[in-house]
Structure formats: structure tokens, C-alpha cells
Write a structure and sequence with these properties.
The chain is α/β, with parallel strands linked by helices. Helix content is 31%, strand content 13%. The chain has 13 helices and 9 strands. A 9-stranded mixed β-sheet has the order 7-6-5-4-3-2-1-8-9. Helix 6 (166-175) links the parallel strand 5 and strand 6 (180-185). Helix 1 runs parallel beside helix 2 (74-83) and helix 2 runs parallel beside helix 3 (99-108). The protein starts with 11 loop residues before the first strand and ends in a 39-residue tail after the last helix.
Length: 363
């Protein structure tokens, strides 16, 4: 089959091999309807998927969850991905992985590890993870990774409860020998939406964060890459969600559902394809779901005429549906399309009460 010329080949596959996780983070990117263990696809199916992904141009697979270590076949999954000649990035909480297991992962061909960090404060980490001693276990795991000279990224998810410790978070990443830190402010979908009043930072925190990131980039230039994902609610323009719908990456859920982004299951008007029914090539190039918001033909008039349309590619479709009730509208973040954006109305003030945390289940 000849690929449609205007559709680039995918570069990255996010393989969510399970939704099971020892942590219960209230901003988890997994959907609120978690996929159960009995619906998870097999080792053999993942091996086939990895080969199909490589065949259509994917260069990197990020094996994620939940916590991928919850799967007993994790070593076999890494091995299968490497045999497909994919660069293998393991996204993990570090919980449940031993030094011996880390050796086995390295031997199987794990190229890179991305470790989530809830907080640099032990009590703060426990509040978010709902797991006692989680920080200490993560730090031990990070040191094991460093001792084996496996490239390490720290994924620091930031929010109202830990943003005041951002400089310490960056310093910790440097001390652990991380080559990259992703300062990822919570994006308010799914579980995070349910916990918005707890997690949404104040305007003062956001302004301070912007300055701290700028200073840290200068300080660590050449030694540690610092990526920064700002909070949409305080932004003037949208981000290029997933680098544009169906342009660079695809996500496969534990049951084999294939999605253009993490949260696309909320777009219930789309019929999301399954790897059980269709080849990955046909899904990427031919499926209605992946073609729904590609290019600019779907965009409203104000976006069609905008010089940013191939910068942010229209922004987030899930956000447009959740806030505006229509996935085809301009991203509600956009100040050009929505000068009185509902996202900037009634932002949480410091004095407002904090609701109890709603934790995601372990499975």
C-alpha cells in the first residue's frame, strides 16, 4: 500500500502495556475507566505490534503504563522491541523494579529510562502517590540506573502542592545524573480534571516557575536538557498537542485500542481502531480517527487564517470538547479565538478551600 503523500510516517509509539500501578496519583494520564488486567494484550501481540511499528517508520517505543513493571513479561517486551530495531525508552515509577531486574532490562536492550518524580519532599511524595516511602524507593532506583550508566530522564510532574520546590527538584535531577528533566505541569484531563481545585497552581506560582525555568536552563546549559510544559490555563496560545494530531506519535492502550493521543478516548464521536482488527499501517494512514483532525481542513475559519496553525496545529481536541462541547472548535486556550476564554475565568485563588484528593485506583 502506498502511503498517502501528505501524511508523514509516525516516529514514536507510546505502548501503554498496563494500567496497573502501585501508585495512585491524582493526575494520572490513564483514563478514568481503567483497563483491567484480563483485557491486556499478550506478549506475542506486542511483539507483532513493535515489528509493525518499525515497518511503517517508528523509531522509538516508550513502554509505559500504569507501571510497566506490573507485567511479568516486561523483559520479553523490551527484548521484542529491540529485536524490531526500535529505540526502547522505559517510562516507570521505579517501584517494583530491583537491581537484578534492572540488569535484565539493560541486557534485553533498554536504551533509556524515564523516572517519574512526585516531589522532592517525602511527605509531599506520599500525599500524591498514596504510597509510604515512595520517594526513598525512587531515589534508590535512580542511583541504580546511574551506576549502570543508563541514560536517565526525570519526569517531574508539577502542581500547586510542589511547585514551590521546583529549584530543589531541578537540583535533585542534576545530582542524580539525569541527562534531561521534563518539568511537566499537570494537564487537566481525566483524573487531573477531577482534582483541579487541589492541583491548579496560583498565578504567582506560574510566574515564578517561568523565571526559575529560564534561570535553570542557563545554569545547566550543556549538562542537562530542561523541557518545560506550562499550564494551559495560564497560556496565551495552545501547545502543539502530541506535535499535531496524527503527525508524529500514536498511543496503544493495554487492550490494543490505538489512539492519536492519551486522552482521545474522551472523543466518543470517534470510532477508535484496534490492533486486533486492522494493521497499524492502515490505522495510521487510513482510519477515520487518525484522519479526523489532520492538516487544516477541519479547522474553524479563525484558525484557517491564523499564522500559528502549523505551529500548534489547532491545539487540543479533547480540551475543546471538554470545555466548549465541540472538538472541532479552536482550542479554548487560544486568546485570539477566545479573548474571554472560559479557561481564564475563575482561576483558583490562594484563599479558596482545597477539596480532598480523589485518588485513582491501583488497577
Amino acid at each position: 500500500m502506498t502511503p498517502t503523500p501528505h501524511i508523514p510516517a509516525p516516529q514514536v509509539l507510546l505502548a501503554e502495556v498496563t494500567h496497573r500501578c502501585p501508585l495512585q496519583c491524582p493526575y494520572c494520564s490513564n483514563p478514568t475507566e481503567l483497563i483491567r488486567k484480563e483485557s491486556e494484550i499478550s506478549t506475542e501481540a506486542w511483539a507483532r505490534i513493535f515489528q509493525e511499528a518499525a515497518d511503517i517508520g517508528v523509531l522509538q517505543v516508550s513502554i509505559s503504563g500504569g507501571e510497566p513493571a506490573a507485567r511479568r513479561d516486561l523483559i520479553a517486551l523490551v527484548d521484542a522491541a529491540r529485536k524490531a530495531d526500535l529505540y526502547v525508552n522505559l517510562i516507570t515509577s521505579g517501584i517494583g523494579l530491583t537491581e537484578r531486574k534492572l540488569d535484565e532490562l539493560q541486557e534485553a536492550g533498554c536504551d533509556h529510562i524515564q523516572l517519574s518524580l512526585q516531589d522532592v519532599d517525602a511527605d509531599g511524595a506520599e500525599i500524591i502517590s498514596n504510597l509510604k516511602g515512595s520517594l526513598e524507593r525512587k531515589l534508590a532506583f535512580a542511583r541504580w540506573v546511574g551506576a549502570r550508566d543508563i541514560p536517565l530522564t526525570i519526569n517531574a510532574v508539577m502542581h500547586r502542592l510542589n511547585l514551590d520546590r521546583l529549584p530543589e527538584t531541578i537540583q535533585l535531577a542534576a545530582d542524580l545524573g539525569a541527562r534531561r528533566i521534563e518539568i511537566a505541569n499537570v494537564q487537566y484531563h481525566g483524573w487531573a480534571e477531577a482534582n483541579k481545585q487541589v492541583l491548579m497552581p496560583t498565578l504567582e506560582q506560574v510566574r515564578r516557575t517561568n523565571a526559575e525555568v529560564q534561570a535553570a536552563r542557563a545554569q545547566y546549559d550543556g549538562t542537562m536538557l530542561i523541557d518545560y510544559v506550562p499550564v494551559d490555563y495560564f497560556a496565551e496560545f495552545p501547545k502543539a498537542c502530541m506535535n499535531g494530531w496524527g503527525r508524529v506519535a500514536l498511543v496503544i492502550a493495554p487492550d490494543g485500542t490505538v489512539l492519536p493521543c492519551h486522552n482521545a478516548s474522551t472523543l466518543t464521536h470517534l470510532r477508535l481502531p484496534s490492533i486486533h482488527d486492522t494493521s497499524l499501517r492502515d490505522i495510521w494512514y487510513e482510519s477515520d480517527a487518525f484522519n479526523a483532525y489532520r492538516g487544516d481542513l477541519w479547522m474553524p475559519e479563525i484558525c484557517q487564517d491564523c499564522d500559528r496553525k502549523f505551529v500548534d496545529f489547532g491545539g487540543c481536541r479533547c480540551q475543546a470538547l471538554a470545555i466548549l462541547g465541540d472538538a472541532s472548535q479552536a482550542d479554548p486556550v487560544c486568546s485570539k479565538a477566545h479573548p474571554d476564554s472560559p479557561m481564564r475565568v475563575g482561576l483558583i485563588a490562594t484563599s479558596e478551600p482545597i477539596n480532598p484528593i480523589i485518588y485513582r485506583p491501583n488497577s
